[in-house]
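Dear colleague,

Thank you for sharing your sequence with our group. We've completed the structure prediction you requested, and as agreed, I am returning the results in plain text so they can be pasted directly into your records. Please verify that the sequence below matches your submission; if there's any discrepancy, let me know and we will rerun it promptly.
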Amino acid sequence: MADKWKQLVTEANSKTAMRAVWDMILRGLGRGPVEVVLQRPKRSLSQNDKMWPMLRDISRQKQMLVNGVWEWAGTEDWKIVFTAALKRQQRMTQGIDGGVVVLGMSTSQLPANEFSNLIEIMYAYGSEHGINWSEPSIRAYESYREALQ
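Please find the predicted structure tokens below.
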């Protein structure tokens, strides 16, 4: 038995997938307990590739208010802002030497549907704030929209 097996299960293949999982469990139990994990698919690499051109466009055209001062923030800072908007929360902790540290969130662990929502939030923000999308952003967003249909 492989140490790890992964398959996207849909209504169309659910019975076949369940039989395969059952067979692997039975074979695996001979070597000890097995763990079965169900989860929604994580964001894909193609989704991730769509996010970065959009973040670059925003970071080059819009300043961010940081500690009361407008400054040009990098793509990572903007990603934190958008993921906080997606989750509608901000996580903070006390810094080692005092002060407050806002904790970011990893987008690599987002389910695919939440990552799609993140891209929509970024696109809406850019449209509302006059961001001129670059060709890579436009191509990425168009292919993203086509994939949703």
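Summary note from our side: The mean pLDDT is 86.

Kind regards,
the structure core
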